[in-house]
Structures are given as structure tokens and as C-alpha cells.
Design brief:
single chain, alpha/beta, TIM Barrel, 8-stranded parallel sheet, 44% helix, globular, binds flavin mononucleotide
């Protein structure tokens, strides 16, 4: 089954929930453009999430979902809120949503956790989730170790539930590759950062547009919380200090509030400009609809080319 059939969307594409970026307005715009829009609840509290859900409901009659980061202190309340608000799809990051799955399933919610290894996918299938998002280390934001190319087929082999590929997908060739690896659809983040509708500061967008293929770096490998961001003063300094074995608290001083500085203030020197390795493929600011149509048309052309 293709992802669009599973979700009731036009395209087999999910807009990744991005903390501090994926607002109710942005999620609604992505849903209206044919993807499944997600509100990124990381960085929100329960009341803020409720307001974003109401905003999204007022702007679209298409399905949209919520991404809950399980380490969020409000995760328990948010888990209840998505039931009250009759949200059709919930994706989760940073661990196993096991304790919420029974209640969400009873409420008819489709549960789709993000995984970075086949072992977690196998465990979650037993817990009863509907699908998994296998996210490779190419992606922007929090990352695992395995690449999309290595991870997706191994997750597909490990489980019978649908697998959605994420990480390193910004054009039709990569969408076709994701299908070839066994995925039923994809989740994208970085290529939507440069959409017209994306509410990040224009300096952040300009930095993504300017990035080349090797302009990202992973901070936090030494602390067990690796995050892929664009190279800048802050991230270079962070990685330099990590190599000296400096105390974790000192490192945290650099990243405290850094995503908000990037997203809201456009601080490209000390902000955390989360973006994936495909930033180097993002060359212009376009409406979400144009980005999605390009992904679909490029995929079709790529498959036709392979068959020829
Ligand atoms: C700026 C940014 C913030 C992100 N924040 C989150 C998040 O809060 N929760 C989550 O599950 N994934 C998050 N992600 C990952 C995306 O949902 C998506 O899986 C990823 O961007 C796909 O890879 P790509 O960046 O190569 O397209 C984030 C990605 C980016 C680029």
C-alpha cells in the first residue's frame, strides 16, 4: 500500500515535524499542497500545541498530524490532547511511544514512530504501531548512525508494516530510490525549509540556499544527542570543543536557545541552523505545492528512464 492510500493524502509524502518551525499554519499549508502536514510539538507546551491544532483545523479540511518528541516534559499531556482533538496521525521521535500506543489505537489514531535502526522497528511492530519512518543520518535535526541507503532496506526486511523513508530526499531521483529500497513513501524536511510558506527567518533560508553538499556537520556525538546542522561559528566551535573532551554543561551553553535564535532572530552565526545533507540541492524558494509536484514528476521521469 502506498503512503497516500494509508494517509488519505494526494501524494505519498509527509512534511517532517520540525520543532519551532512546523506551526499549525505551516502544517495546514503542506496538507493543502497535497502532503501530510505535521505540527512539530517539540519546543511547545500543551496549550501552545492546542492553539496550533486549532489554527491548522481553521486553515485546512485535509488530514494533518502531530509530531511528539517523547523527551518533551509535556509528552503525557500531549498524548491525551491528540486523542481529544481527534488527530488522525501521530509521529514520534526520540525513543519508543510504547506506553501511548494502546490508547492512541483505541482512538483510531495512526501511530508512526521515527526509527534509526531495524531493532527498534521490530520492537515497535510488536507494540502495534501502523508504520515506521526509517530516518537516515543524512537528515537534518536529530540523527542516528545509519544512512538511508543502508537503513531503509534493512528495516523493510525486519518488519511487515509499511516503511516510510526519510533523510536525503529532495528530488524525484531520491524519491524513486526510496521506493526502490522498499519504502511506501517518504518524509522530507530540509527541502521544505526553503518553501515560501516555511516560517523560518529569511537569513536561515538564505543559509540553506547557499549551502553546498558538505556544508553540514553533526554536533553532539560525544553527548549522545547528535544533531545535523549547517556549519557556522557555533557548530564549528561546538565540534572543536567536543574533541577536547570538555564538560557537557559547557557544550550546552553553546546550544541553549540556539534553534530559536536561528528560526526567529535569523542569527546565522550562533544559531542552530538544522538542515540535512540535501541542503546543497535546494536552490530556490518556491511554494510547497511546486516542491511536491517536482518530487512526484521527477520520480516518474526517473522510473521511466530506468525502464527505458
Ligand atoms: C530544521 C529541522 C528540524 C527538525 N525537527 C524535528 C523534530 O522536532 N521532530 C522530528 O521527529 N524530526 C525532526 N526533524 C527531522 C524531519 O522531521 C525529517 O525526518 C527530516 O528532515 C528528513 O530528512 P531531510 O532533512 O534530509 O529531508 C527535523 C528536521 C529539520 C531539517
Amino acid at each position: 500500500m502506498k503512503l497516500n492510500e494509508l494517509l488519505g493524502t494526494e501524494f505519498p509524502i509527509i512534511q517532517g515535524g520540525m520543532a519551532n518551525i512546523a506551526t499549525g499554519e505551516f502544517a495546514a499549508a503542506c496538507s493543502n499542497a497535497g502532503a501530510l502536514g505535521l505540527i512539530g510539538a517539540g519546543g511547545m507546551n500543551t496549550e501552545t500545541l492546542r492553539q496550533h491544532i486549532h489554527t491548522a483545523k481553521s486553515l485546512t479540511d485535509k488530514p494533518f498530524g502531530v509530531n511528539i518528541m517523547l523527551m518533551n516534559p509535556c509528552a503525557d499531556e500531549m498524548a491525551q490532547l491528540v486523542i481529544e482533538e481527534k488527530i488522525p496521525v501521530v509521529t514520534t521521535g526520540a525513543g519508543s511511544p510504547g506506553k501511548y500506543v494502546a490508547a492512541w489505537k483505541a482512538a483510531g489514531i495512526k501511530v508512526i514512530p521515527v526509527v534509526s535502526a531495524a531493532v527498534l522497528a521490530r520492537h515497535l511492530e510488536k507494540v502495534g504501531v501502523d508504520a515506521v519512518i526509517a530516518e537516515g543520518t543524512e537528515s537534518g535535526g536529530h540523527v542516528g548512525e545509519l544512512t538511508t541507503m543502508a537503513l531503509v532496506p534493512q528495516v523493510c526486511d525486519a518488519v511487515k508494516i509499511p516503511v516510510i523513508a526519510a533523510g536525503g530526499i529532495a528530488d524525484g531521483r531520491q524519491l524513486a530510490a526510496a521506493f526502490a529500497l522498499g519504502a511506501c513513501g517518504v518524509q522530507v524536511g530540509t527541502c521544505l525549509l526553503v518553501s515560501q510558506e516555511c516560517p523560518i527567518h529569511e537569513n536561515y533560508k538564505a543559509a540553506v540556499l547557499k549551502a553546498k553538499d558538505n556544508d553540514t556537520i553533526v554536533t553532539g556525538r560525544s553527548t549522545g544527542a547528535p544533531v545535523r546542522v549547517l556549519k557556522n561559528k557555533m557548530s564549528r566551535e561546538y565540534v572543536r570543543l567536543e574533541k577536547t573532551g570538555i564538560d557537557k554543561m559547557e557544550l550546552e551553553k553553546l546550544t541553549l536557545g540556539s534553534l530559536r535564535r536561528a528560526v526567529f532572530d535569523g542569527d546565522t552565526a550562533t544559531g542552530s541552523l538544522m538542515a540535512g545533507q540535501v541542503a546543497g540541492m535546494c536552490h530556490e524558494i518556491r511554494p510547497v505545492r511546486a516542491i511536491l509536484e517536482d518530487l512526484m514528476a521527477g520520480c516518474k521521469a526517473c522510473v521511466a528512464g530506468l525502464e527505458a
